[in-house]
Write a structure and sequence with these properties.
39% of the residues lie in helices and 23% in strands. The longest helix has 19 residues. The chain contains ten helices and eleven strands. The radius of gyration is 19 Å and the shape is globular. This is AraC family transcriptional regulator.
Length: 271
């Protein structure tokens, strides 16, 4: 039976491959019900932590190079900027409830740095708590989310070996270079030359660390920045130029492909 959202939703948004039902949106939090088509979601990233529970259907998740099946009594947690994808295991649509948490929420609510959270949590109690948010009284929803976040277990980080540290440092430097000026897209040859390695070596190292080659990863960041600027009310042409597109038409076509709707439609949503 298809998932029927409760009454009183703040907004409904149709994407090319899914339908989104917005239950809550604040500067730090967003709660959305998602009905995804069988094709699922291609590789993409988010600016926020994404904490999800399935409401129906079977889903396989790809997260930073590893695949796993999502069970009904588990949470999946995607950290910010992690490359992720998913698809239906049954060939049918599936539904989930996703909580988007800005990294700044943790210092704001808990006076702590953004934590390292596990990607899979086999916790029926937490899965049930997340599901209940959809039917929670709207006036109590934000505090219920904060209570849920407080129950999430943190992961202890392990010290990497020297070789992986050097590789991570190189990737972080390239990432920073890609982020320094999103209005000026770089070439792979230029990135490799500045990193002191061959383009093939750079693509391999970056892909192993980030799940995408460097220019594809930068495109995800350009789209994330475009979404932020559109939400802030900037004009489409301003956003296009600020994110490295020569004209509005090229930007609009790319934005629609990555985000499931044209930028003008995205700006009209009540954020």
């Amino acid at each position: 039976m298809p998932w029927q959202p409760p009454l009183g939703l703040a907004a409904t948004v149709r994407h090319g491959y899914s339908r989104w039902m917005i239950f809550l949106r604040t500067p730090l939090l967003e709660l959305a019900g998602i009905q995804a088509t069988a094709a699922g979601f291609p590789k993409h990233t988010h600016d926020e932590y994404v904490i999800s529970v399935n409401l129906g259907g079977l889903e396989q998740v790809w997260l930073d190079g590893s695949s796993f099946e999502v069970k009904p009594d588990m949470l999946t947690i995607y950290p910010p900027a992690a490359v992720q994808a998913s698809r239906s295991l049954s060939g049918e649509d599936w539904q989930c409830l996703s909580l988007y948490v800005a990294p700044a929420a943790f210092p704001a609510y808990f006076d702590c740095l953004p934590p390292d959270l596990p990607s899979q949590l086999q916790r029926p109690d937490l899965a049930a708590a997340l599901r209940q948010l959809a039917t929670q009284d709207a006036s109590l929803r934000e505090e219920a989310i904060i209570a849920l976040l407080a129950r999430l277990p943190r992961q202890a980080s392990s010290a990497p070996d020297k070789a992986s540290s050097r590789g991570s440092l190189l990737v972080r430097r390239v990432q920073q270079q890609l982020l320094d000026d999103l209005s000026q897209p770089l070439t792979l040859d230029a990135l490799a030359q500045q990193a002191g390695i061959t383009p093939a070596h750079l693509v391999r190292r970056f892909h192993q660390a980030c799940g995408l080659p460097p220019l594809a990863w930068q495109m995800q960041q350009r789209m994330a920045e475009a979404r932020r600027q559109l939400r802030a009310g900037r004009s489409i042409i301003e956003v296009a130029l600020a994110t490295g597109f020569a004209d509005q038409a090229h930007f609009s076509k790319t934005f629609s492909r990555f985000c499931g709707m044209p930028p003008g439609r995205y700006r009209q949503i009540n954020f």
